[in-house]
Each structure stands twice: as structure tokens, then as C-alpha cells.
Write a structure and sequence with these properties.
single chain, 211 residues, alpha+beta, Arc Repressor Mutant, subunit A, Beta Polymerase, domain 2, four-stranded mixed beta sheet, three-stranded antiparallel beta sheet, elongated
Length: 211
């Protein structure tokens, strides 16, 4: 999965860019607005041509609002549901991870995504980096805990096509990283996405307060 634009491999070219823009909003948009959101590489003339083709196919609806037309995805079209799914591949991946962790026998204190996957600026070759905060009463070598971690890494790789790396610390180890000013901590504060448990801002602020 291209972590900066997950659906591009499945919806390539200008047509895909236009459909992704319209799938992410219910608000009618002019052709120039669609082109602006789609990005610098997508020209207005080509966007206008593609919008006309999609209107002819019934996938996009066009309303006359002089001096321009306004466009929106036809959400009643049979193609709308898969388009909406493709437009939210990142969100669906995060939801799958959250759902998987919710059934763990040894629940983590927190599970966060960090790095390029969290920032959304990675590529198809980028790893998906997760950090699991282990409860202090769970040993790192506990067979059930290890099986959970290994299984999650396998499933995330299967869901995304990217390698998944899971870093894990218990609460005391995390405190030590904060006190040492480890660069990982600032990355978590800046970019960390909560997948289970508390947010990194909450946990790391508390850790600093009580060190």
C-alpha cells in the first residue's frame, strides 16, 4: 500500500484522482475546485474532460450553477460503495488494527502508529511502525503476549502489503525513554495515532509529570 496515497494503485491516473476527491465529500464542487484538491499534477482541462466522462457514465452528478457546473459523486450508483471503500483504505486499515487488538487476552496499555505511516508520507515500500505499551504485570516473554504481537504484525502486513514492525516497551521502560530524551518520544508526541488505549500526548505528559 502506498502510505501517502493508498488507493492510487487501484484508482490510478486523473480519473482516480477525481473520484477520490469526490468520494471524500458530500459538498458539490466546481471543476476548478476538484482540480485544486486533486493536486498540482492534475490539470484543469483534463479534470473537466474526466468529469464529463463520469457524468455520462452516471457515476458523477452535475448541477448547473452559472457561471459554472458543480459536481458530486452519485452515491446511489452501484459503483459508489466500492469507490467510497477505496477512498478510505487508510481508515479501514486503522479500524482493522483497532478491532484486532480489542480481542487480545493481554490488552496493551496503549498501541500507537508512528513514523511515515502515521504522517501519511510513506510509500509502497515503507514499513508500518507500531508501538505497543505493555502492562507492567505482563512479562515481555509471556507466550500469549508474544503470540498476539507476532499475529498482529502478520495481519497488518497481509492487510496492507507493507512490512509491519512492532516496537514494544512496558510502562517503566517508556518512562526511561522520556527521561533520556529519546527521539522516539518526540516522534510519538508529534505524529502518534491512537489505535488502542490512551493517546501518546496523555501518556507521555503523565510520564514526564511523575518522573
Amino acid at each position: 500500500m502506498d502510505l501517502s496515497n493508498p488507493s492510487e494503485a487501484l484508482l490510478p491516473s486523473v480519473r482516480g484522482a477525481v473520484l477520490r476527491v469526490l468520494a471524500r465529500t458530500d459538498a458539490p464542487m466546481s471543476g476548478r475546485q476538484v482540480a485544486a484538491v486533486a493536486g498540482e499534477r492534475v490539470g484543469y482541462r483534463r479534470v473537466s474532460q474526466v468529469l464529463g466522462e463520469l457524468v455520462a457514465a452516471g457515476v458523477v452528478l452535475r448541477d448547473s450553477q452559472p457561471p459554472s457546473y458543480l459536481y458530486r459523486l452519485n452515491r446511489d450508483h452501484v459503483a459508489a460503495e466500492p469507490l467510497l471503500i477505496l477512498a478510505d483504505l487508510r481508515g479501514r486499515l486503522l479500524s482493522r488494527i483497532t478491532d484486532a487488538v480489542s480481542s487480545w487476552t493481554h490488552a496493551p496499555e496503549a498501541l500507537w502508529m508512528f513514523g511515515s505511516a502515521a504522517r501519511g508520507d510513506g510509500s509502497a515500500a515503507s514499513d508500518i511502525d507500531l508501538l505497543a505499551v505493555r502492562s507492567s504485570n505482563v512479562d515481555g516473554d509471556d507466550p500469549t503476549w508474544r503470540a498476539q504481537i507476532d499475529r498482529l504484525a502478520e495481519r497488518v502486513s497481509a492487510w496492507s502489503g507493507n512490512d509491519c514492525q512492532i516496537v514494544e516497551y512496558d510502562c517503566e521502560e517508556l518512562t526511561a525513554l522520556v527521561e533520556a530524551g529519546d527521539p522516539l518520544i518526540e516522534s510519538l508526541r508529534r505524529d502518534g495515532i491512537v489505535l488502542a488505549g490512551r493517546s501518546p500526548l496523555d501518556v507521555l505528559r503523565r510520564t514526564r509529570t511523575h518522573r
